[in-house]
Structure formats: structure tokens, C-alpha cells
Amino acid sequence: MNNFSDISEQKLISSVPKNFKRVLFVCLVLLVLCAIASLVLGSRVVRLQELLDGLFHPDAESYGANIVRKRVARTVFALCCGAALGVSGSLMQSVTRNPIADPSILGVNTGASVFVVSGIAFLNISAAHQYIWLALIGAAITAVFVFGIGSMGRGGATPIKLVLAGAATSAALSSVVSAILIPRSYVMDQFRFWQVGSVGSGSWSVVLTLAPFLVTGVVTAILTAPALNALALGDDVATGMGVRTGVLRLISALAGVILCGAVTALAGPIGFIGLLATHVMRLVLGPDLRFVIPMSALSGAIILTISDILGRLLGSPGELEVGVVTAFVGAPLLIFLAIRSKVRSL
């Protein structure tokens, strides 16, 4: 592929969306409000003084201040995971030209889970950085497998074939995960949150482990956005504009796999964030990926943080894992999109 900036200079979609500044402002305000709500709300509501002590007085040892400090790391982790999944969903929808592509729908999350659970059960792996590398391998292999199956037969990789291939692969791999976990109670007890996804394990060490993968994936996505705009016009048109479509798809898909694989390794298979975040941004901003991709990061962070807050409130005094909440919201959305768009390609 030629320099990505060459495509940008061609100004495939030259104008900034009219409402971009307004949408950006609203998203930033919501992000701040969600972060504050995540620190305050939960099985125990934190008072204002406890919030201030936890944030600005490290020597404060009150129970509420300690809760705030723990929630800070959890909130940052939720924001990072949501951003990663939002961008991953945008990339997968663009690469496959499938409006309902998402790491969970295409089975990529489940593939990552299989490899990590296998590593825990058979290789006694226990470090977060080891989880991530296994998850990336599993996510990559699953993505290639699903795309290969969906590309077979007449018509190539159509949206409906990719979704069916992803659903079948996800179901099969979920059975493999269950087969590994059920007879091994120690694995089941330690990583049972994987079955639904949770950000409850968020800590600063986990955030630092995720950070390089998040930065790599997001930067790659932003750099490839102009060329992905060309790809949306069709392979022939994109090739005529100087885009090496095969290399572009490989790089973009790899960035998406890195993002969703890293999140799955650390938080479990959280579904529908990429689908919901990207569609919201496409609805309000239009199809230009130069704006949709970074804004999907913001909207994904907001959606996942809100879901985590709802899980804590609805499950009080315990906790309802965030994967349950996102599935409850995302499944009806998927049905609505399938009916309304008739699963047409982008």
C-alpha cells in the first residue's frame, strides 16, 4: 500500500461533518460524567468528601477513600477496554464491509478465550502478559478461519456468510472452552468471569499491560482510516487510487485483532461494544472513518463504563458482570439492524 497520507490528500471525503464539534463535546462531557459516576456509584455510594479524599489526599485512610482508589483503576481499565473494542468493531466492519461485524459476532473473542483457557489449564500460565499473547494468537487464527469459511462458495465473503461462519465458529469454540473448564474446578473458579466478561479485575498493572496494545491498535486504525474510506468505494476504485487492498486489509485486521485479543485476555469476551459504538457514530457523523474510528473509541469507552455502572447497581450488593449488561443491550440491537438493513454490505 502506498503512503496512507496520499489517500488523505485526495480528500475522499473532504469536509468535516457539520456536527462533529458538537458530537465531540457531548462525548467528552459524557466521558467525564461516566468516569465520576463510576467512582461514586456501586454497592456502596461514595460521598463527596470521600471522593475528594480518595482522589487528592493519598494519606486519607477512610473506607470510602480506599474504595475510590480501587474504583479509579477499574474505571480507567473500563474506559480503555471500551475504546479498544469500539475501534476494533469499526475496523472489522470496514475490512469485511459488513455492517454487523463485531469481535463477538465473528467469533474472534471466543477464539482468544480458547487459547488463554488452554494455556491456563495445560501450561499453568498465570501472568497477564502471557494471557495477551495467547489471546492474540487465538484471535488471529479464528479471524482467518472465519473469513476463509465466509469467502468460500459463490459471491465471496458476503455479510450474511461471514455472520453465519462467525456464529458457528463461536458456538463450537464455546463448547471447547466449557469442555476445558468444567472438569477443572480451579480454572473455573479463577476465571469464571471469562464466560460473560468483566472489568472487575481492573488494576493499574492490568492497565499498563493493556496500554501498549491499545496505543498500537488505535494509532494503526487512525493511520489507515483514509485508505479504508477508499476501500468502501470498492476494491477496483481503491486500487485505482493507489491502495494495495490486500495489505490494507491485513494491517487493519491485525490492528482489530490486537485490540480485541488484548481486551479478551484481560477482561474476558465482552460483546457488542464494537457494534453499538460504531453504529452510533456512523448514524450521527456519517461514513467518514477519519472521524468514525476515533469517535468510536470515545463512544465505546462511554458505553462500556455505563454498562459496568449498571451492572454494579443492578447486582447490588453483589455485581452483575458487564458482559451480561452489554449482551442484554446488544442482542436486540443486532436483531434490529439485521431486520432494517437486511444485512447489506457497507
Automatic annotation (TrEMBL):
Pfam family, one: FecCD
Gene Ontology terms, MF aspect: transmembrane transporter activity
Positions of transmembrane segments: 20-41, 72-92, 104-124, 131-150, 162-182, 203-228, 248-277, 289-310, 322-339
InterPro entries cross-referenced by the UniProt entry: ABC_BtuC-like, ABC_transptr_permease_BtuC
One Gene Ontology CC term in the entry: plasma membrane
Residues forming coiled coils: none
Domain of life per record: Bacteria
Subcellular location: Cell membrane
Membrane topology listed for this record: Multi-pass membrane protein
Keywords, ordered alphabetically: Cell membrane, Membrane, Transmembrane, Transmembrane helix, Transport
Gene Ontology biological process terms from the UniProt entry: siderophore-iron import into cell
Gene3D superfamilies: ABC transporter involved in vitamin B12 uptake, BtuC
Recorded family membership: Belongs to the binding-protein-dependent transport system permease family. FecCD subfamily.
Name of the protein: Iron ABC transporter
Organism from which the protein derives: Paenibacillus apis
